[in-house]
Specification:
The chain is mostly helical and 134 residues long. The protein folds into 2 domains: 81 residues, Arc Repressor Mutant, subunit A, CATH 1.10.10.10; 51 residues, no CATH class. A two-stranded antiparallel ribbon has the order 1-2. The longest helix has 17 residues. The protein is elongated.
Length: 134
């Protein structure tokens, strides 16, 4: 998520493309790990990429990417939509042993991640002295 917030900030600053090295340094993350995350996000069409010496990654302004979009792109649907115990089938009609205890927590988390977008969090960094790196 720090990666996407950083790209949203750079987009608002008018920077066309940001390199993997610049992103990894800005968020204090290993370069190879950052590159893999950026590739997954690009493959999920959550950001744009361009190869070459002037290439890099770019998040279009007002892209509307939610935190839930990012979680699904990186971790898949299991966290937000799957069974907490990993069963293939788990629903109100056929519940796993943990379903009744954790469904309300998952619903709250899913709602919060869906209703929070990257632009919103980038504004916290830009206007409210938020940070991406310790």
């Amino acid at each position: 998520m720090k990666t996407m917030i950083y790209l949203a900030i750079k987009s608002k600053e008018g920077v066309a493309y940001v390199s993997v090295v610049d992103v990894s340094e800005a968020i204090d993350s290993p370069k190879h790990f950052t590159a893999k995350i950026l590739q997954q996000l690009s493959k999920a069409n959550l950001l744009n990429s361009q190869r070459g010496p002037n290439g890099g990654f770019f998040l279009p302004p007002e892209s509307g990417v939610s935190l839930a979009d990012i979680v699904r792109a990186i971790d898949g649907n299991q966290l937000l939509d799957g069974c907490i115990l990993g069963f293939k089938e788990c629903s109100e009609l056929r519940r796993c042993p943990a379903h009744h205890k954790l469904q309300s927590v998952r619903d709250y988390l899913k709602g919060t991640l869906t209703s929070t977008n990257i632009e919103e969090l980038s504004e916290v960094v830009l206007k409210e002295n938020g940070f991406l790196k310790m």
